[in-house]
Every structure is written in C-alpha cells, then in structure tokens.
Amino acid sequence: MAAPMLRWGCLGRRRALALVDGRTRSRRGAPTGSASDRIREQSSVAQQPVHTAQEPRKGEHKWAAVVGLEIHAQISSNSKLFSGSQVRFAAPPNSLVSFFDASLPGTLPVLNRRCVEAAVMTGLALNCHINKKSLFDRKHYFYADLPAGYQITQQRLPIAVNGSLTYSVCLGKPRNQMVTRTARVKQIQLEQDSGKSLHDDLRSQTLVDLNRAGVGLLEVVLEPDMSCGDEAATAVRELQLILQALGTSQANMAEGQLRVDANISVHHPGEPLGIRTEVKNLNSFRFLAKAIDYEIERQINELESGGEILNETRSFDYKLGCTVPMRDKEGKQDYRFMPEPNLPPLRLYDDASSPPAGTASQQVVNIDRIRETLPELPGVTRERLVRQYGMLPEHSFTLLWYTCCGCNWSHGCVLTDLTVSQVSGALNADTRQSPCPTMLTQDP
Questions:
Q1: Is beta strand 133-134 parallel, antiparallel or unpaired with respect to 312-317?
Q2: Is 62 helix (H, G, I), strand (E, B) or coil?
Q3: What's the structural domain count of the chain?
Q4: Report field, pTM of the whole predicted structure over 0.90
Q5: 325 lies in the same domain as 397
Q6: 124 against 57, higher pLDDT
Q7: How much of the chain is in helix, strand and coil states, percent to nearest 5?
Q8: What is the span of the domain harbouring residue 76?
Q9: Contact in structure between 266 and 300 (CB atoms under 8 Å)
Q10: Percent over 90 (pLDDT), the chain
Q11: Is residue 177 part of a domain?
Q12: Does residue 59 share a domain with residue 164?
C-alpha cells in the first residue's frame, strides 16, 4: 500500500509529505469542569492498572489509593490534523471548517507532518520507544459535534510507547522537602478532537461549533502510579512544562489545550485493586487535585458504610466541590474499532533505515534528526540552577514555572539572592529556542 501523504502544518499550502506508516487512536470532550458540561467518553487505556502506586505508611490508614491519568494536549500547529483548516482560539463559530471537517462525502484525510513530528518529539522527551510503524483506526460513536460518526485515532499501534515521566513532589509542613517520583507512560497517540456543543438552557437548545473538530491532539496515558490529587497535579504540571519547552503544545488549560481524565480506585494494601471510577475533563490543576482527593474520600466512605463502588464516569462540579455521576460504564460500549481505510500505515525512519528509493527528503520524518533538536528540558534546567547558582530546589521550581507560563517571573527572584539578570542568563544559557525547523512553518 502506498505511503500516506504528509502536508506542512500551515494554512493555504498542502505539500505532499510522505509520512509513511501509522496508527492512531483518539477521543476527547469539552474543556470544562462543571457537572452541567457534556463530556465525551474516552477509551481508557489506563483503566487496568498494573500495580499499586504507593502503599500507605504503617499506622497511617488502611486504604491505599491508585490514580492513573489520560492527558489530552492540543498540538501547536497552524492547521488541523487531517485538513488545511486553520487552528485559532475564539474564532467566530463554524468559521474554520473545511469540507473534510464537516465530513462531506468524497473528502479524504491528508496527514499533517507537523503533528507527527510533535508526537515524535514528545515521545523522545518522555523516554518513549518510537514505533517506526504505527496505524490509524476509526472509533465509532455518536455525538452531535462529531459529524463523521467516528474518530480517527490509534487504538492498535500508537506512535510512542513505554516511557516515563519524572516529577518532584513537595513534602513536609513547610513543603520544602523535594521527593522525586516517576510515573510510567503507557503510550502517546495521535487523534482528532471533536467539535463543541453549546447548551442554551434558556432557549432549551444546543448549538454546535465545529471549529475545534479535527484539531490534532496528543493523548498521553500515564499508568496508575500516583496515589493522591497533589501528586497527580504535580505530574501534569511537569508534563505541561515539558510540552511548552518542546513547543509541541501551548498546553494552556484556560483555552482547553490541556485536559485530563483521572481513573481512581481504592483498596486495602495487599489486596486486589478496587473498582475504578473515571472523572472526566478536568481543566485546571486545582480542580484535578480536588476532584481526585474528593473521589478517594468518597470511595472510602462508601466502602466503609457497606456500599459498593460502581464502574462509572463522573464529572467534577467545581461549584459544589464534589464529583457527580454522568453515566454508567458497567455495560462495555462497543466502539467497533476498524482500520482507517483512507490512511496507510505511518512509517518513520532513522539514520539506520532509509526510505524507499525516489522519496524526497522533505517527505521523510527522521527520528534521529528530531532527537538532535530536543531543547533543554525543565528538569535539566532546574538541576543547572541548583548546581551552578546554589539555588534551593523549591526556588528553581518557582522560577521555571514563572518563565514557562509567560508570567512576570522576576517577582520570583525575591526568593533567592540572585538578581533578575543573573536568573535570566541562567534560564537562557545553553538552550535552543527552535526545536525543529521543519515544524515551524508559518502561515503565509
């Protein structure tokens, strides 16, 4: 079968870029934490935890919590995953919709090279194995803002697998004791976003905006290696910093560019894991931590009072500060996965393998070339600040957080003996601001 064609991630131009071989899996819901928001179910790869994250200290309590995460990050690209439609936040409704986005008959997907390179770069930064061959699949389900009735995703063979995310948790009363933890990354996959349903309760109607339909997403699945809300929020915050340092996603939670689904269960240490619940579409670190901690407490209280935990999807109501049930997951939904017939396998190359004869160099995604362009990651920057300038570890976290968030981080300098110019030089030294030239195509 012929290799899929890749195009540059810019509006108005579709250059043939042979991205050979690929698979995908996907899904996503609306970026909101309110119970009234409609949230989309997702295939939860992390729903079968491998082991307990951490058992409680002796005498602390008799329950252990297990938390796994599915994180959806919007890829920083000028156009969508399979169409040339522009990607822009807060555009007029239905103003950025191509024929393919609207699922008109006869339209075909054209894979965005920028999105593939972003997935490879993210996988390398998270110590993943990059599959040189990945596949795309159709995941069938009905929503009003999903015109095709299916989502193109990577169910069978994703683009990256078996990685790790290292983060540091603050412990102690003053929270000045840093402990390093690692969460396993099960997989990273490419997928389409859906549109957005806007519910007008006053007029009892629902309006559909397809501007977001087809936008490229990275789904990062973390194994259930966490045990509380603060730990999960810290892991997601570290991933956000990595994505922003790479330039693969702006990861702005306020604009729905980073959304989290949390899979939570409790059990007695030494016993099998309990029945899990899934809390969908958490779009802030504070809501994520609160939702997980509330759900852990709710499950413990339910079990201690003689009740049982249902395998269900829940939403976090930030006004009430609690999770509320959305739908029952006891009956497994049949998504009727099937290979995407319009996208051949996605093939990637490295220095040890060469593309077919006659393939233009700009049509090839080379894993080793992307590896060479990786910038300095946040963890390395923090270590350099501590080692070179004698900064306290917790202060290095604060300064780097200010920088990556685009805030006036100079206010953080009051925590150290360094001047603003010293910190600025330390943060900017030995870093590469342009991660991958071929991914930085600008709109004409």
A1: unpaired
A2: coil
A3: 2
A4: no
A5: no
A6: 124
A7: 25, 25, 50
A8: 28-93+110-130+159-334
A9: yes
A10: 59
A11: yes
A12: yes
pLDDT in tens, 334-371: 788 999 999 999 999 998 888 877 777 777 899 999 99
Contact 370, 384 (CB under 8 A): no
The whole-number pLDDT of residue 435 equals 34
Six-digit token string for 297 = 């407490």
Distance CA 255, CA 248 (A): 16
- Residue 7's beta-bridge partner residues? 112
Distance CA(21)–CA(108), nearest Å, equals 17
CA distances from 198 to 30, 143, 203, 205, 352 (A): 10, 13, 12, 9, 50
CA distance 200 to 177: 48
Structural domain contains residue 125? yes
Q: Is residue 141 part of a domain?
A: no
Same-domain pairing of 248 and 386: no
* Residue 427 pLDDT > 80: no
Contact 19, 362 (CB under 8 A): no
Q: Which two tokens stand for residue 123?
A: 């996988």
Clarify whether residues 171 and 244 are in a common domain: yes
Range of lowest pLDDT (146-155, 353-362, 424-433): 424-433
Return the CA Rg of the chain: 22
Measured from the Cβ of residue 179, the count of other Cβ atoms closer than 10 Å reads 11
Q: Please return the burial class of 297, using the count of CB atoms within 10 Å of its CB with bins 0-12, 13-18 and 19+.
A: middle
Q: Is the pLDDT of residue 21 over 50?
A: no
